[in-house]
Design a protein that fits this description.
Layout: H1 3-13, E1 18-24, E2 36-43, H2 46-69, E3 90-93, E4 99-101, E5 106-113, E6 118-121, E7 125-129, H3 134-143, E8 146-147, H4 159-165, E9 179-185, E10 188-195, E11 197-198, H5 201-216, H6 237-244, E12 251-252, E13 255-257, E14 265-267, H7 273-291, E15 300-302
Length: 305
């Protein structure tokens, strides 16, 4: 695929959007790690986001048809339905809070979805765009005396990420409990309607502050959140890494297993994805040696590792 041509076509069709080539991605992640995207697009609302996705879908279909007519398929294109997901022609970033981006970056197109809008609907419902920061949504709904989302405080996610990952709050309630419907395009989340409850927001706001204070004491924001999932009916993963593997505080390069919480790996300022992954592999290796199994990753790896 001629990415220079794709870039030129995008610039011509979307002259008002921020579109760059070879654009660094570290700044768009909470851990501040990651190489460049071949093409980077920043959309500011759901309309722009959807328009770009539709354009890229059509562009890829055109490329596929051109190669098919010549008896040659683009590398990685098993079928026409490979679409935006097949070889990751298009990757969407929300808050970048649970993705480790390779030092070599992400090939193809990366869209930073900054669509942030919340509309009040009848019957205590809201329509929210997928790029909306969860913290903004929580504050907005509480300001309008709609309660329920407070237990998701201090989770650095967009609404799209919260839905895709079906995150849980401090009381282990999943985000899907509040989701009535989801608008998607080619598996990408555009917006959602959430079903909340009317109530006194004062105690809910107090709970938000309490959650933030407690989590801030142990969960570093210069990280990607929990690296591994907890194992059902076992000690918390952080406790296992700390007390059974004795790796809490261990460093490789600029990456460190957090001294506050051993299921977090932090960037001390100069960490690379290679450093970060080396710590993951160290933990997995020791788990395999000592206990005969490995943790399941909570974070996602993007790019070539």
């Amino acid at each position: 695929m001629d990415l220079n041509k794709v870039f030129t076509d995008l610039k011509n069709n979307f002259p008002n959007l921020k579109i760059y080539q070879n654009h660094p991605l570290a700044q768009y992640t909470t851990v501040k790690i990651g190489g460049p995207a071949d093409i980077f697009i920043n959309t500011q609302n759901s309309e722009e986001f959807l328009d770009v996705l539709k354009y890229l879908k059509q562009a890829e279909a055109t490329i596929f048809e051109e190669h098919s007519s010549q008896g040659v398929l683009p590398q990685g294109s098993g079928t026409a339905k490979n679409s935006l997901q097949g070889e990751n022609l298009t990757t969407v970033l929300g808050n970048g809070s649970n993705v480790l981006i390779s030092d070599s970056g992400i090939r193809g197109i990366v869209i930073k979805n900054d669509s942030q809008k919340v509309d009040l609907l009848p019957e205590n419902k809201v329509k929210v765009s997928s790029g909306t920061q969860l913290s903004y949504l929580i504050n907005f709904t509480l300001d309008h005396n709609l309660v329920g989302l407070e237990e998701f405080a201090y989770i650095p996610s967009t609404v799209g990420g919260a839905i895709a990952g079906n995150i849980h709050g401090v009381n282990k309630i999943n985000f899907s409990k509040f989701v009535e419907s989801v608008e998607k395009y080619d598996d990408f989340i555009i917006s959602a309607i959430l079903n909340l409850k009317s109530g006194d927001s004062a105690p809910a706001k107090a709970q938000v502050q309490e959650i933030i204070q407690k989590k801030a004491a142990v969960q570093s924001m210069n990280s990607l959140g929990s690296v591994f999932k907890n194992i059902p009916n076992q000690d918390p993963t952080g406790m296992i890494i700390d007390q059974k593997l004795n790796l809490k505080g261990y460093s490789i390069g600029g990456a460190q297993i957090s001294p506050k919480h051993a299921n977090f790996i932090i960037n001390n300022g100069s960490a690379t994805a290679k450093d970060y992954l080396a710590l993951i592999n160290l933990i997995q290796s020791q788990m395999q040696t000592k206990f005969g199994f490995q943790f399941e990753l909570e974070i996602k790896l993007l790019g070539n590792f």
